[in-house]
Amino acid sequence: MKTFSNIRFKKKTVQRFQEFSRRFFKTHTEALETMLDFFFYNEISPKETLGPNARTLETNIKKRINALIAIIKDIEKHQTQPTTAMLQLLFEQDTVKDKKPRLVAVNPKDKLFKEDSFATSLEAIELKKQKNSLKRDLEETKQQFEDILFSKIQVIKPSFGKPKLQLNMSIEELEALKENIKKSP
Description:
Elements: H1 11-24, H2 28-41, H3 54-78, H4 81-92, H5 111-114, H6 117-152, E1 153-156, E2 164-167, H7 171-183
Antiparallel strand pairs: 1-2
C-alpha cells in the first residue's frame, strides 16, 4: 500500500524537479530517494560546492603526474649513478680475476676519507674504468707486437757476416701500424 504526502514547493522548483526526474527516473519518488541517498552515502552537504569540475580536476591530476615523473627521472639520474657505474664496471671487468686479494689501508686522517663518500666512490669507479681500458689497450698492443715479432720478422743467415733480421711487411701495413700507434693515448 503506497502512501503519499504533500509538500509545498515553488512552481519553478517543481517544474525543474519534474523535468529532471522524467529525464533520469521513472517516478518522482525514485528521483528524490536517489538524490537523498547520494548525499547521505557520500556524506556531502547539499549546501557545499563540490569544488572544481572534472576538467580542472583532470588538469590538476595531469600536472601532479608530470611532477612525479620529473621527480622519478631526477632520482634515476642522480641517485642511481653509483649503482649504474658499479654495474658498468662489472661488465667491463676482464674474465681473468686476480688470485691474490689486495688490501688497501684507509687512514682516517687522509683527505680522501674526509671527503664526501659519494664523490670519492664515483672517482674510484672512474679510475677503475680508466685502469681497465688502459689494460685492454696494453693487451692489444702486446698482441700486435707479438704478431709482428713472430710472423713478420725472419732471421737471415748470410754466408759471410753476422745473421740479420728481415721485416716482411708491406709499406701499407707499416703505415697503418704507425697510425695506430699515433692514435693510441
